Amino acid sequence: MRTPSPPRPESALRRLLPEPSGPVDPADAYADLPAAEGRPGLRLNMVASIDGAISVDGRSGGLGGGADRRVYLALRALTDVVLVAAGTARAEGYGPARIPGQLAAGRAARGQAPAPRIAVVTRSLSLDWEGPMFADAHADSQPVVITSAAAPADGLRRAERAGAEVLVAGDAEVDLPAALVALGAAGARSVLAEGGPRLNAALAAADLIDEICTTVSPRLVGGGAGRALDGPEPRPGGRAMRLWAVYEEEGFLFMRHRAER
Ligand SMILES: NC(=O)c1ccc[n+]([C@@H]2O[C@H](COP(=O)([O-])OP(=O)(O)OC[C@H]3O[C@@H](n4cnc5c(N)ncnc54)[C@H](OP(=O)(O)O)[C@@H]3O)[C@@H](O)[C@H]2O)c1
Q1: How far does residue 114's CA lie from ligand 1's centre (Å)?
Q2: Tens of pLDDT, residues 29-67
Q3: Peptide bond into 116 cis (omega under 30)
Q4: How far is CA 201 from CA 114, 157, 195, 209, 233, in A?
Q5: Among 252, 256, 197, which residue's Cα sits nearest to residue 229?
Q6: Quick check: CB of 128 below 6 Å from ligand 1?
Q7: Which of 69, 108, 142, 261 is deepest in the core (most CB within 10 A)?
Q8: CB of 173 closer than 6 angstroms to any ligand 1 atom
Q9: Residue 259 near ligand 1, beta carbon < 6 Å
């Protein structure tokens, strides 16, 4: 397996497309998520190896690096809500989002809460209710649990006791378009989806992804690791994706694809 090259001393994010420029601040470069009609704009952020693997030993951390972390934090800092599937929240041990210094100042200047809310999509409600996602949530960033009418009643009671806002959308699976409208009604203008693959496929099938940010990590992983989408194919007639911008830092490529309007 190839190991990432050491960081260049002058390391900084530079734009390769649409025209080369650099260095660029990711908080500025990514501040242009378009608004959507009747719901918050939705951006999906994923990291994958050169050969398309989205995890190493069941988690995404083995694909990351300093440059990826900076873009990941900038995207979190720009959003009102981080949307995550329960499978990923369980695998990655999700806690509340923490936004460091300069990025937090940007949120305050835009009138946003100090941190985005975490919204977990789950049918089973099998979540760690005593874990950091609920126990350590910032007072201004109440966690959200998005579930369906099929959710078990005792899970709903536990979610409320854990301090979560519960949104019920859909009968069996979560109705994602309705969930996004509900997040918008609760004040969100932008949503950052962080996976995983089954949520991503459902979002794509419903044509809800306005922008996909893909970090290509300079690693080969092989094995049986999954891809960014696992589920039904995007429906015919959905919006096509077009390359919007490409950046590079420390050997990581950062691609942005936008849904055509
Ligand atoms: N490379 C990356 O950027 C990245 C990002 C995220 C995740 N990952 C990796 O992805 C893996 C986890 O994947 P996963 O297969 O568990 O998929 P997932 O999409 O993370 O989670 C699937 C679970 O989320 C809930 N869910 C998703 N869509 C739903 C819907 N429409 N309605 C109701 N519930 C829904 C269900 O939870 P319940 O079972 O609770 O009902 C379902 O079992 C981990 O290895 C993680 O590291 C990688």
Answers
A1: 26
A2: 999 998 999 999 999 999 999 999 999 999 999 999 999
A3: no
A4: 30, 29, 9, 10, 7
A5: 197
A6: no
A7: 142
A8: yes
A9: no
pTM: 0.96
Provide the Cα torsion 26, 32, 37, 40; round to 10°.
30
11 C-alpha to ligand 1 centroid (Å) = 33
Strand-by-strand arrangement of the 117-121 sheet: 14-17, 241-249, 252-259, 211-217, 41-49, 190-193, 81-85, 117-121, 144-147, 165-168
pLDDT tens-digit readout, 209-222 = 999 999 999 999 99
Tell me the CATH number for domain 14-116+180-259.
Answer: 3.40.430.10
Structure tokens at 39: 């719901």
Taking the CB of residue 139, how many other CB atoms lie within 10 A of it? 8
